[in-house]
Amino acid sequence: MTETLLLIGILALFGVGLYGMMILHNFIKLVIALQILTKTAVLAFVIAGEMNGQIQLGQSLALTVIVADTMVAVVGLALAVQVRRHFGTLDIRALSTLKR
Amino acid sequence: MTPTLGLIGLPLITSPLVYFAGRVNRRHAAWSRGLALLSLLIAWVFFAQAAQDFSLNGTLETTIGMIVLRIDGISLLLTAVVLTLATVVTIYSARYMAGEMGEEKYYALLIAMSGAMIGLACAADLFNLWVWFELMTIASFLLVAFYCQRRTALEAGVKYLVQSAIGSVLVLLGIALIFAQTGTLRLDELALAGESLALLGAGALFVIGFGVKIALVPLHTWLPDAHTQAPSGISAMLSGVVIETGLIALLRVVGALAGIAESWGVLLLAFGAINMLFGNLMALRQKQVKRLLAFSSLSHVGYMLLGFGIAFYAGEINGAAGGFFHLLTHGLMKGLAFLAAGALLYGLHLAHERHDPLTVGDLAGAARRYPLAALTLSLAVLGLGGLPPLAGFMSKWQIFAAGFQTQDTLVMLLVIFAALNSVLSLAYYAPLVNRMYRDHPSNVVQQGKPIPFSMQVSLIVLAVMVLAIGLLPSLVNWLTEPAGASLMMVLGR
Question: ipTM value of the model?
Fold first, then answer.
């Protein structure tokens, strides 16, 4: 029962993250949406570990994901700083000078 | 120390040292450069040792705690391509990047990225594969947006980061699904898992997640921007090995899941066909040289997918070996093409402190002023187009021959389609050569500055390899055949 609830939670969180990625225009908000999206994976690892009786392994995988995901967030925010500095805005709609 | 640990550990340990060396001596980045080159040269020694051990004893395994690192034919091939390109690019960048802000970071990230790619090649479990993949991706984000004072580079960096990050979350969810279902992450144990919907779903997540990095066609939109805006050495690395590393990651997981469905081969063949056609059509309409080359990478991924698709679909080992052969020759040829285009860009624009893109029009008459760069660029693009006796012809030939060996109508039709695409690609490669050799030098070319010696050396090295492999394709059999055999072993055929 708890597992089903948690699985529904993961799907909901994934939906929130993906929806955010699609509708947001502010780059920092996009990074936040990306964080929400990654957190679904973190949660999924813990639950997967619980489901097959290897909770320690699941937790350590989740920790590794958190570390790697933080690096992505840091790079993303560093890019956001540069974007704000050189474009004067964080709106990603301004970032469309290159041809498709 | 085992060669596996040396190959992976050395670049990763040297990376921060390269950075600090550059910070200590702020005047010029010679120390960083030297240290980076030194670590790559030592890595070659480990590579030679690993290759020798592999030829004597077969697959090498090294265990650190629970982590298993394995060198098989595929790892050896990818490592060879990574080390070749990284070494050449480091020599090339000595002058190309000289005086850029944060030059020491460039070399530190370059060898960290190379180390991560070698690690990915050796990973024997799913999660490890993802960790190396993510490390490579993070290093490449920073390298794509290296010119962070330029708007265009920032734009390319943002697009690349957002798309790659979503792709990597999908891969993670796939891994979690597999972990929940089977309780194991080891690729070889996974091959024994039975058929189930969850594993099929995980496979789909992997195709989309890794597909972003490989630039499978609807997921390719980051690629032309990133390849154009990155420094030329990095464009060569991105196009020559990074997207191929994504392909190897996909092959490893799909190979492990091959038991659960028979349609992976069809999927790879279908993506191959779309990539070939779309890449060629988009390349036809490009005016910028680097953008043209970036789109042609899409079509070359298509040829590789065709080779691997033949292996998955019909169990033809020559398809796998041909796919790996094309991976190797494409790495060398595309690396050469980007470096030669970068050399011209340097002579025509960068040396004048201009940051304009290199257009096809700028190349007019370039052969008179820059004979070496024009010759090597021509060799590279004609090789990519598949003209004999260059490397690209040989690798495409092996894939096409494998296709006909299967005697399967679908595969044979696809091979004919690929051959026609190869002809179509000459429609944008040949005009480049024509322009460089037959037009009168444009104003830009007449005012161009000379190309430094270190760049010329790296162009010559790669050009000689492209010619040598074209004339004597058996030179690299020791790499491509074990790689093909390793893939077939995973597939259990």
Answer: 0.96
